[in-house]
Amino acid sequence: MNKSIWDEYLKGQKFNKLENDIETDVLIIGGGIVGVLTAHLLKDYNINYCLVEKDTIGSGTTSKTTAFLTTQHETLYQTLTEKQRQAYLYINSKALHRYQQLSKIYNFDYEEVDSCLYSKDHNLIKKEYEVLKEIYNDIYINNNIPFDKDKVGISFKKQAVINPIKLINELSKNLNIYEYTEVVKIKKHYAVLKNGKIIKFKYLVTATHYPINNKLNFLFMKLTQKKSYVCVIKNEFVKGTYCSLDKDGGLYYRMYKDYLIIGGNDTDVGCRCISKFEELVCRKFNIKKEDILYSWHGQDTISLDGIPYIGCSDIFHKNHIIVTGFNLWGFTWAMASSEIVLKIIKDKKYFKLTRLNRCSINKNLFKNIWTSIINLLTFRRPRCTHLGCALIYNKEEETYECSCHGSIYNKEGKVINGPARKDINV
Ligand SMILES: Cc1cc2nc3c(=O)[nH]c(=O)nc-3n(C[C@H](O)[C@H](O)[C@H](O)COP(=O)(O)OP(=O)(O)OC[C@H]3O[C@@H](n4cnc5c(N)ncnc54)[C@H](O)[C@@H]3O)c2cc1C
Predict the structure, then answer these.
(1) Of the N and C termini of the chain, which has fewer Cβ atoms inside 10 Å?
(2) Do 328 and 373 belong together in one domain?
(3) d(Cα 329, Cα 332) in Å, to the nearest integer?
(4) 18 lines ligand 1 (CB under 6 A)
(5) What is the per-residue pLDDT across 257-267, written as a single tens digit (0 to 9) for each?
């Protein structure tokens, strides 16, 4: 249960635990794709850094991904202004190019493919195409969608797929990393570890997926988490990556070697179970449950406007940089965020598009506020140790889940997914 196709590439503990006080110029918290790419870039620029990971490198959301590398992030471009659109495309295309460069040095099963976004709503696709063709040449309308012949898509040429954990293993080889080293408290210029040791820093990069600091920019109201489900089967083949925009049973898929990786059923945390997704896959591909070789779910942080939050925490903590809110499109953004972090540290230059304090009053903000109010006022127990919201019991997965911020506890009450850090009594 919940074993991803990448888990076998996780090698367990490779780095020591930090057992003494240290000082560093840049402290990176979190050893997922964001933390590792940032550490790798800082090392290239001879900037003194240290990365701490509470578990082992790559074992967080990064091991639950499907790892499409694409600049095509649903139909976001049609919601952006022209300037934002150009900035968004530029920084993500640059990130894609850097993965391509890395693939010449390291082996992480990088494969160049076209990526296609499709829907039964032809107008939606047409609108995205019209907006994009002004700024991007390498796109085309795709009428040949495997498994969904009546739908239409928009394809981007020369995108990619990778094995994310092979990449993390390659990049982390010569980095300054401590595993099983959890940060429990953050002050302006130092962090306190679970074992009481202290790390002093000039800059802090929070790459913990859901941030463990920042209150002044109200990220707890601006971020939710979404679950996505994935199954792996054999004996089917597609060329490229495909991602459906349709809410009812829409899927995304790609190949890894001769496996077909199929994702979908995206939902707010606390709502659905993996077995429903397995049933959907069985129906769609006319197979039995035993034919599913891997099956897992993961969750990603969702911002209010579809753009991540990458920038300074708040005006009193300009040396704290937060990276979060990838909306299930974390790979190109993780690469882009490493460059944004470098620019802030090296040149004090800030990237406007992703700043944390941008105005994003929209219907998603009101939805988040409403869900929080309902969950705070309801008498149901147990309560989440993060902000006290009532938890939902997920019968099949035997977990307690927070639909406001995405914390998950197992049936014994132990935290298995943050932002909560303390266990609950059940
Ligand atoms: C099912 C699924 C499919 C996806 N598919 C794609 C895709 O095809 N393409 C794409 O671009 N994106 C995809 N994504 C999104 C992408 O996988 C994520 O955005 C990305 O992996 C997030 O990386 P991260 O480094 O921010 O987080 P993580 O990988 O979760 O890393 C954060 C790390 O911080 C550590 N940490 C947390 N708190 C502390 C602490 N206090 N002290 C020390 N360490 C701490 C955690 O242990 C963890 O290892 C998908 C996501 C899911 C769930």
Answers:
(1) N
(2) no
(3) 7
(4) no
(5) 999 999 997 77
